[in-house]
Every structure is written in structure tokens, then in C-alpha cells.
Model the fold of this input.
Amino acid sequence: MFLLHISKKVNSFRIDYKVSYLFMIESEKQLIEYCKKLIEQKLNWGKSEEWRNKEFIDLSDTLYNETELRISTSTLKRLWGRIKYDGSPNHYTLDALAAFLGYNDWKDFKTSNYHKIAPPIAQDEIHLPTNGFQHPASQEESAEQISFQPTTAPQAETNSNHDSFKLSKPYLFLIGFLILIIGIGLGMLILKFIMPQKESVNFLVNPPKTVLFAYPTIAKEYPAKVKFMYDISAVQEATPKGWHLTNILSFGHDTRAKLIYSGDEKGETEYIYPVPGIYQPKIFTNIKQTSETLVLVKSKGWLLNLDMQDTSIMLDKLDTIFQKYNMMLLKEQDIKQIFPKYNSPHTKIRWCSYSKFDNFNINGDNLTFKADIQRPYNEPDGLNTVDIRIRGRKNTIHIQFIGKGHSDKIYLGFSEKKGIHHENPDVYKAFEQDFSEFRSLKIETKVKSYFSERKKTVTVYLDNTSLYQTTYEEPIGEILGISFHFRNTLGIIKNIELSDDVVYYNYYSSL
Done:
């Protein structure tokens, strides 16, 4: 009888271990589901089960606006279960979703949120088999051995010459106490193997820094060849015994990356950036990001990017045309002359973007930015998005204007403050604006003293009227890029001014 009780207890611990293994397998799926819920909460577009094709197109555009990473509508539909798909999302998709929520990448999201989904996991989130669970490594074991269903103990054979065996209460108490002690011992033994050790926890929370250098960090021409020198030996040396890390050097352009193998902890590599932009190469492991640098590839004047339904094109060296109109304006005949395959912009363009990348030598925390903006074509759905981004060496100013009644889709970002409209829903209604005629935008950042404290402030004006003001903590840094984005139309911009107390730039001014 005593051995029978011990056997049952050991079997119960074996089942608990296998359930824990199931939780570990399911954790990635749970994180993806949790990420989707956070995205749905941020968007506030209603139940995702009721989303139509339009919502998935808008989601693809919204992700691109905030992260500059494009996920197709078909991928999003697969992720949200509208298209049957048995596989898992790739790292590019997961990194984009995490970036949309303000994380560096998917690894950063996992590290920050794993404790929210593992264990305990809600009963209704994991569907265990009704007839028991078998570990993949023990397929030959019978279901009866590890069944979750209670089993009836076999009846003892009757014997007319002997009475049934009975135990007094003291003996039952002693046996129960021994089973409890054995159970605690087995539990501690299991935890020793399945829980990370102290050194592992420290390694997870604060892994050693790696070294990453880029040369040149500012490229004047494109395509730009950049050399990278890296050193991840500190991470390799500090990795707990038995751990296997995947070390990756991401070049910050699309999904291009280099896998750093064991024995290649110090080395050099090259990457060619095909187009102008601000790139943030990073080294990270399958735990978290460990270091990053910055590469600026300058543009030759202002660029025009057209993201169309069937293709995307980038046009540069447009200053001659812009100077003809004394504003950033391209008419259909201008584009057809440069790009003969171009058709009507009202039916083909998804996004029109004007951008300039340069080291302006302007302090982003003491900035005055002005521009007159117009979007002459109104969209049927009334969104009429106008998107402005000022990229600093450290952080970004990102604001959107949108048509009346659509303020729930506006995004505002000032340095570390991203998605500000979720803090105060009344604020972003001021950004429901009509740009069918020229409107004068002004963005101003200042460092102000409040008694003994110095605070960074940013103020947004439209037609000399203050729309919004807030403070932020992390510096914007030196300005490296400016971009204007128009949804489904060609926009028009003039009288662009960019200055601090020392430097002043002016583009296409009518003065």
C-alpha cells in the first residue's frame, strides 16, 4: 500500500512535468496572441473578428507609418486567422509587430512580457487532450499511464480466509506525512532542472555588452558600402553552461542580417545600403539586443518615393523640377516623363513620400521647423492622412493629421513618448484637419527651466494656433532626416524652414 501511494505520487509529478513542457511549447504562441491583443487595444478598431479587408489594408499602412517596416495584408490576415495557415510568422513580421508596440524587436518583447503569459496560463487558453497528454519523446507509452482522467483502483481479490487490510488513523497520518516529504523533495528536484539558475537569471536581465563599429557612419553617396567590426566574445564567455545562443548582426535594412557562428566572435563584414536613409545596425542574441550603432546614407537633395499597388519607385535629383514650381510638386506629366509606366495617381498611389537625409548640424532639442502643406486630393474614406517625421540621431518627432471623424487612427510620437493619443483621447481630436488648401505647420522644441529643473518641451502649431504641447525626457539629438508622407495622393510642400539658434535652412520659399 505504501509503495502504491508513492507510485501514484511519482506519476502525478511526471504529469506535472509534462504539462510544464507543454506550457514551454505553447509560450511562443501565447506571446504572439498577447502581442495581437496589445495591437488591437492600441488601434481601438473594435473586435478583430469583425475586421474586413479595409482594416487589414489600414493596419499594413499604419505599421509602415510607425515602424517603416512593411507587412503585407495577406500576412496580417494569416496572423489574425482569416487565411488558413499552419506555420509560424517569420522574425521580420514579429520584429515589426514588436516595433509597433514600442519595443526594439521581438526578442525585446519576449523578454519584457514572458512573465505575463507563463505560468500560470489560463485554462481556456491551452486546450489539453481529454484523454491525456503524451510527451513527443514517449509516444510508445500507453495513454493509461499518463492519463489526466481519474482511474478507478482495481478491486482487491476477495479471500474468505482473511479480513480486508485496514490502517488506523495514526498510521494513515504517518504515511500521508511521508508522502508529503517525498513530494516536496521530488518537486525541488524537478525545479532544479527546469528553472534557470541564479547566474542564468542575471545573464537574462543584464547580459554583457558586445562591441559594434561601422565605417563610415555617414555615407555621402549611395549605394553605400559600409564596413562593420564586431566583438561578441564577452557574451560567449559569460553564457551559462548548457546554453546555446544565436548571435545575429542585423544591418537595419529590411530583414538582412549576418549570423555570427561560434569561433567567429571577433570579425569584420561589409554591407551595401542601396538607398538613402537612417539605419540602426544591431547585434542581438536570442535573448535580447546587446549593442547598436547608427549609419546615415545621405540623399542627393529631396527624394520622392511612390509606393503603388503594383510597384514602388524612388526618384531623386528632382531639384530642377521643384525649382520650376518653386515648391515640392510633381505633376502627372512630370512623373510620366521620368517613369513612363506611371498611371493616374488617384487610383495607383498608396503612399507618396518626400524625404531628405543629411547631417543638418541642427540641435533637435532647440528646433524650429516650418512648412506649408497641401494635399489636393481627398480620399473616399475621408482619412486624408498627412504624416510628418523629423528624425534625430537619438529619437524622432512624428505627428499625423487626419480627416474629421478618424482621430482614433492618429499617431503622435515625441522622443520616448510614443502613441501619446492613448494617454488622453481628447488631445488628438485637434489633429483632425483639412489640408485641401495650404496650411502652415510649425513644430518648436525648447529646453525650459522650471525652478531648479530643466525640461524639454515640444509645441505643435497650425496656422499660428497652438494645437498641442508636451514635455519629454530623452533627447532628440542632431537632426538627420525630414520626411512628409501622403496617403493615396501626391502632396505639395513649400516654404520649408529648419533652424536652431545657429544654423538655418530654407527650401522652396516664396519670400
Summary: The two ends are 99 Å apart (CA to CA).
